[in-house]
Specification:
Layout: H1 2-13, E1 16-21, H2 33-53, E2 58-65, H3 74-79, H4 83-87, H5 99-110, E3 121-124, H6 133-140
Parallel strand pairs: 1-2, 2-3
């Protein structure tokens, strides 16, 4: 809805950047099917905006965060205080994300220096979608 509100003014000005926030759940089966479907839809929406409005000077990209330590995890932390300690084993970088990790990606995609980046899905996930780090560790025993 917000994108629809700002697009006419961006078109009139001949430039603009839309950066959406989806999730790695939109590209991998990680549970929560309805959430994942919504996040996949946002990726498709981003690509549509990028292709339809790119010729009008408007870029559109999407950031795909992995686990980020935010208040949305509060109920999980209350039920299982060690949840972040457990989850970080999935990530090759050895930690879960921080809000500033996502903010930095948004800042990059929104900057003029990213002027040729359009329709991209940028995984900001500590390597989660690069491969199964935990599976590899379990197989080789390290």
């Amino acid at each position: 809805m917000l994108t629809r509100l700002v697009l006419p003014e961006m078109v009139e000005g001949g430039l603009g950047v839309v950066t959406n926030i989806s999730s790695v759940n939109g590209i991998q089966a990680l549970g929560n099917p309805a959430y994942s479907a919504a996040k996949a839809g946002l990726i498709s929406f981003t690509q549509t905006v990028a292709t339809e409005y790119g010729p009008k000077g408007i870029r559109c990209n999407v950031v795909l965060p992995g686990t980020v330590e935010t208040p949305v995890w509060k109920h999980r932390v209350e039920a299982r205080p060690d949840v972040f300690e457990k989850v970080k084993s999935w990530y090759p970088v050895g930690r879960v994300g921080r809000p500033e990790d996502i903010a930095a990606a948004v800042a990059f995609l929104s900057a003029d220096e990213a002027g040729f980046v359009n329709g991209a899905s940028l995984a900001v996930d500590g390597g989660l979608t690069a491969g199964s780090f935990k599976m590899i560790k379990d197989m080789i025993g390290k």
